[in-house]
Specification:
With about 180 residues, this protein is of the alpha+beta class. It contains four helices and ten strands. The strands form two sheets. It has a six-stranded antiparallel beta sheet with strand order 1-2-3-10-5-8, with no helix packed on it.
């Protein structure tokens, strides 16, 4: 409950300051006392539902506005902190950097493919956007082979039969963005 109080406190204080409202003016608009507002902003008071409704109505925001958590302005991920997911033989490694989020509808991976490895991917919804980071990669789409080298890119529907193959002597790595559109009804 303390964490929720802090979220409410931060959101109320931020909203009030962004609108250049004093505690007195906020109390006037909401019908909630200046002392109570100060206690809520300091995280020292657990506001009731009716108090939050008064504040929301007075400041003309949704009730849930006060419960929303701040999203990070940036996310830094270091490769050594990302654990790969490997196939049975270990020749195909996927490093999940950004997992699927409903608001963005995509996920981003780095993939490493060892020499001689062929990975037959499962068909799936959405689209794949592939960019070869380093090496030579063969991508098979519905049986048609596409040779890609460092810096080359390929976009295709995940519903196509597809596989990745490394015919070279060195490991190939590529970035993979998988986009999932809204389902068609």
């Amino acid at each position: 409950m303390e964490e929720l109080n802090k979220i409410i406190a931060d959101n109320l204080a931020s909203l009030r300051k962004n609108r250049n409202l004093s505690l007195d003016k906020t109390a006037e608009l909401t019908g909630v006392s200046k002392a109570m507002l100060a206690q809520i902003e300091k995280g020292k008071s657990n506001p009731t539902v009716s108090t939050l409704w008064k504040i929301a109505n007075g400041l003309q925001v949704s009730f849930s506005y006060f419960m929303k958590e701040e999203t990070a302005t940036f996310v830094k991920i270091q490769k050594e902190d990302v654990s790969p997911i490997e196939d049975e033989a270990g020749g195909y490694r996927v490093f999940p950097y950004f997992n699927f989020q409903p608001d963005t509808k995509f996920e981003i991976y780095t993939v490493e493919l060892e020499p001689g490895c062929i990975h037959g991917a499962k068909t799936h919804l959405g689209k794949e956007y592939l960019l070869v980071r380093e090496g030579d990669l063969t991508v098979s789409l519905d049986g048609q082979k596409h040779q890609l080298k460092t810096g080359d890119a390929l976009q295709f529907s995940g519903s196509m039969l597809h596989s990745y193959e490394n015919k070279a002597a060195d490991t190939v790595s590529f970035f993979l963005l998988m986009y999932y559109p809204e389902p068609e009804l």
